[in-house]
Specification:
Number of strands: 17
Strand content: 15-25%
Helix content: 25-40%
Largest sheet: 7 strands, mixed
Bound molecules: pyridoxal-5'-phosphate
Order of helices and strands: HEEEHHHEHEHHEHEEEHEEEHEEHEEEH
Radius of gyration: 21 Å
CATH topology of the largest domain: Aspartate Aminotransferase, domain 2
Oligomer: single chain
Shape: globular
CATH architecture of the largest domain: 3-Layer(aba) Sandwich
Structural class: alpha/beta
Strand order of the largest sheet: 4-12-11-10-7-5-6
CATH superfamily of the largest domain: Type I PLP-dependent aspartate aminotransferase-like (Major domain)
Number of domains: 2
């Protein structure tokens, strides 16, 4: 019998802080470990399992597509990929789609697309924001500032600036005629479920008018319905030029997307960008199921369940004012700013058979499957209350 934890320590690079459970199976919003414990999943594979685990329609789509073929490469016209692109453009109003395998690959592609657009215009600078998270490849890392992700791994891409999030004055000082693009998460996920304030967003678009740069929205975590609208930026009255998606869009399989407005359709010529696996037929088939479910009522339900979750979290904050300082987020992307290390609460919640996640030190992040209902929220809130009672601040 393999001791999986020991074997993992011996064989895999120790880059992850894993939860102390070996998973046997997962279904809906439940995860079962090999010791027979059942956990309520408020992490959803880090905002990935939009339809929960083992959703029957996702399994059916995988079965159906994999019996036809799994991988062909992008030398072929593949119905699953083209159907997904058609649906995405119809649902979002964006004109063009490029499929990748992951979020960071979508971000690097988006940076390349913007740079190629900027090349003809003498624009080479990109500005992004402190606390942002865009991935682990060099393009994405070059537009991030957290030392943990970057220390001693430079040099990074040149001409990249990091400006204070929600700081319009600092942004203005960082923008000029050479600015090619501004990259942001309208709700920062890893950065602590922090929302852009409307004045800041307005300033970005005001400067865009003046200096003519592209706005790239990183919707990898907040997109695909998580905030109750298809994109997180739809809570503001703006339309970025380029949008990146990943996580939820694949319904559990690796899939990333770059969406662009039609005016960028000809920026890339044949061969300008590519990938072997991106737009894999099976992942596209599951992506289509996610979009269909969102269209068939799920999107409306997310807002309703999200509002309920928020009201319950506010009650918890009122009950524990010394421990819970702020309720953050929109829809089913919620955060609790705590007065102590959120890792302690994650451990305590695990004792109460609930899985959640800490980000940015003192924030408990909640990104459950999008189809949870009020019963699961109530179950989570009960465990949260019991866990908070257990936490001793001294
Ligand atoms: N952008 C955001 C907002 C993310 O939350 C993440 C992952 O957490 C990424 C990009 C990177 O995505 P991936 O891990 O699929 O490369």
């Amino acid at each position: 019998m393999i001791n999986y934890i020991e074997e993992e320590h011996r064989t895999i690079f120790q880059t992850y802080k894993r939860l102390p459970l070996v998973v046997d199976k997962a279904e809906g919003c439940r995860i079962y470990d090999t010791e027979g414990n059942c956990y309520l999943d408020f992490l959803a594979g880090i905002a990935v399992n939009a339809l929960g685990h083992s959703h029957p329609r996702i399994i059916e789509a995988i079965e159906k597509q994999s019996k036809k073929y799994m991988h062909l490469s992008n030398y072929f016209y593949q119905p699953a990929q083209i159907e997904l692109a058609k649906k995405l453009t119809e649902m979002t109003g964006y004109g063009r789609v490029f499929f990748s395998n992951s979020g960071t690959e979508a971000m690097d592609g988006a940076i390349k697309l913007a740079r190629r657009w900027g090349f003809d215009r003498g624009k080479t600078e990109i500005t992004a924001f402190s606390g942002g998270f865009h991935g682990r490849t060099y393009g994405a890392l070059s537009v991030m500032d957290k030392p943990l992700y970057k220390d001693k791994m430079g040099p990074f891409l040149p001409n990249m600036k990091i400006s204070g999030y929600n700081n319009p004055q600092e942004l203005e000082a960082n923008i000029n005629q050479s600015t090619c693009a501004v990259i942001l998460e309208f709700i920062q996920g890893e950065g602590g479920v922090t929302m852009a304030v409307p004045d800041f967003v307005n300033k970005i678009f005001e400067l865009k008018e003046k200096y003519e740069f592209l706005v790239i929205a990183d919707e990898i975590q907040a997109g695909t319905g998580r905030t109750g609208k298809f994109f997180g930026f739809e809570h503001y009255n703006v339309k970025p030029d380029i949008v990146t998606l990943a996580k939820g869009i694949g319904g559990g399989l690796p899939l990333g997307v770059i969406l662009s407005q039609e005016h960028l359709a000809d920026v890339w010529a044949k061969g300008s960008h590519g990938t072997t696996y991106g737009g894999n037929a099976v992942a596209c088939a599951t992506g289509l199921v996610v979009l269909e479910e969102l269209e068939n009522g799920l999107l409306d339900k997310i807002s309703e369940t999200g509002d309920y979750l928020k009201s319950k979290l506010n009650e918890v904050m009122n009950q524990f004012p010394d421990k819970v300082l702020e309720v953050r987020g929109r829809g089913l992307m919620a955060g609790l700013l705590l007065s102590f290390d959120a890792g302690l609460l994650v451990e305590e919640l695990l004792n109460h058979k609930v899985i959640a996640n800490a980000c940015s030190g003192k924030v408990l992040r909640l990104v459950p499957p999008l189809l949870i209902g009020k019963n699961e929220v109530d179950e989570f809130i009960e465990a949260l209350r019991l866990s908070l009672v257990q936490i001793n601040l001294n």
